[in-house]
Amino acid sequence: MRVMRCFQVITLAGLLSASTADAAERPWRVKVFGTATDATLSAFGQDVEDDAGAGFGLGIERMLSSRFGLELDLLASDLEAELPIDFGIPGLKIDLALPTETALLKLNWHLTPEGRFDLFLGPLLAYERFDALTVSVSTVSGSESTSADLLDDDTAWGAHVGFDLFFGGGNTSLTAGLAYWSLTPRLQNDDGDIVLDEPAELDSLVLSVGVGYRF
User: Fold this and answer.
1) Rounded CA gap, 154 and 32, in Å?
2) What is the 3-state secondary structure (H, E, C) of the chain?
3) Which of 17, 64, 65, 104 has its CA 20 to 30 A from that of 122?
4) What does the alpha-carbon distance between residue 31 and residue 165 come to, in Å, rounded to a whole number?
5) Do strands 133-139 and 201-214 pair parallel, antiparallel, or not at all (unpaired)?
């Protein structure tokens, strides 16, 4: 029994040392990916859901140990939606377009760092910058559009889960993830003055798929 326990301890120690050595030899991971965002904006008593806004992102992770890594992602996406308001005007359509840039700081807990399929999860801190909101109004007689900076930049905590699937015994991988965060940006005018005490709410669920490389 003691021999078996000693063997198990030695085997576990070997696995841990091997994974630690692997993380030390290849501590960096870079990723390029496309994104699809499912977002809901609540403001002025209305809930507006975007049409799965597409975007892209870049990420870099530094392994702190065999199990934990710190990752920084930079995302750019365009959120588009149709405003669900009916004034009884034939052919009326109100479209919204909101470009965003987001920085995500993630703490990754790698559950299976020693295998080809590396599953990880953890908390994240999101900082989102909003460009000008464009409102396009279309009727049977034509269309008009206007733009304004209505949302103040904001930060929020969130959570994420993802995986890296490495090809063969190499360093290239298929990477995918799902991240969620909820912001409460203030509504402002073009001069940056807050126009409402009650902030808006923006819930974002982002799916990402791309390729990665470790070195």
Assistant:
1) 25
2) CHHHHHHHHHHHHHHHHHHHHHHHHCCEEEEEEEEEEEEEEEECCEEEECCCEEEEEEEEEEECCCCEEEEEEEEEEEEEEECCCCCCCCCCEEEEEEEEEEEEEEEEEECCCCCCEEEEEEEEEEEEEECCEEEEEEECCEEEEEEECCECCEEEEEEEEEEEEECCCCCEEEEEEEEEEEECCCEECCCCCECCCCCCEEEEEEEEEEEEEEC
3) 17
4) 12
5) unpaired
How is domain 27-214 classified at the architecture level of CATH? Beta Barrel (2.40)
Tokens of 149: 């900076």
Measured between alpha carbons, how far is 43 from 187 in angstroms, rounded to an integer? 9
Contact 99, 84 (CB under 8 A): no
Q: For each of the chain's 215 residues, which pLDDT tens digit applies?
A: 444 444 344 344 444 444 444 566 789 999 999 999 988 877 666 667 666 678 999 999 999 999 999 999 999 998 877 666 666 666 667 777 888 999 999 999 999 998 899 999 999 999 999 887 787 777 767 677 777 777 888 999 999 999 999 998 789 999 999 999 999 888 766 665 555 556 778 899 999 999 999 99
Q: Which two tokens stand for residue 14?
A: 């070997």
Residues 129, 152: contact at Cβ < 8 Å? no
Per-residue tokens: 133: 């909101």
